[in-house]
Design brief:
By secondary structure, this protein is α/β, with parallel strands linked by helices. The protein has one domain: Rossmann fold (3-Layer(aba) Sandwich). Helix content is 44%, strand content 21%. The chain contains seven helices and seven strands. The strands form two sheets. Strands 1-7-6-2-3 form a five-stranded parallel sheet, with helices on both faces. It has a two-stranded antiparallel ribbon with strand order 4-5. Helix 1 crosses helix 2 and helix 2 packs across helix 4. The longest helix has 17 residues.
Length: 164
């Protein structure tokens, strides 16, 4: 599920959040999407953010997908866990790669942390969350890594780039 098209005011809000730390626009977008999210995400769903490489998280001081999960979980009454799905190794930024290179870059990039797998037992489904979806490679490979949990896995992005 994609909530918005990454263009115009949505793009401006996302860039303001990611580059300048201003979350007002993102909070407004999420508030506007809550009725739809309530229809799509049940209270027994566990939200998992797409993991961010630790080096980038340290540099930016934020984990954008985890922030989205935290905000949505607070509104929807579902769970979220930022440590279950992890990135394995360091990969180049997706934004500098072509579509084929993005898929190759992330093929084995995600794993589940054994330390947190037992916490999934109370949930009926998982929803993997990312801020921007371009080719879908990131969400696809993150979902593949989560399928071994034997519960339904869906994906959600705040914004989807326009198809070219």
């Amino acid at each position: 599920m994609n909530l918005y098209v990454y263009a115009g005011p949505v793009r401006d809000a996302v860039l303001s959040w990611k580059l300048q730390g201003r979350d007002t626009g993102i909070r407004w977008l999420l508030d506007a999407a809550i009725p739809r999210l309530r229809q799509e995400i049940a209270s027994d769903t566990l939200l998992l953010p797409v993991p961010m490489p630790l080096s980038r998280m340290r540099k930016s001081g934020q984990h954008h997908a985890a922030n989205l999960c935290r905000w949505m979980a607070g509104e929807l009454g579902c769970g979220w866990q930022w440590q279950l799905l992890r990135r394995k190794g360091e990969q180049p930024r997706q934004s500098v790669l072509s579509g084929a290179a993005r898929r190759k870059n992330l093929r084995n990039a995600f794993v589940l942390s054994d330390d947190y797998v037992q916490r999934v037992g109370d949930y009926a489904s998982i929803c993997i969350v990312d801020d921007i979806m371009t080719t879908g490679a990131t969400l696809h490979f993150a979902a593949l890594a989560s399928r071994c949990l034997d519960i339904p896995v869906s994906v959600l992005s705040l914004a989807r780039t326009k198809k070219r």
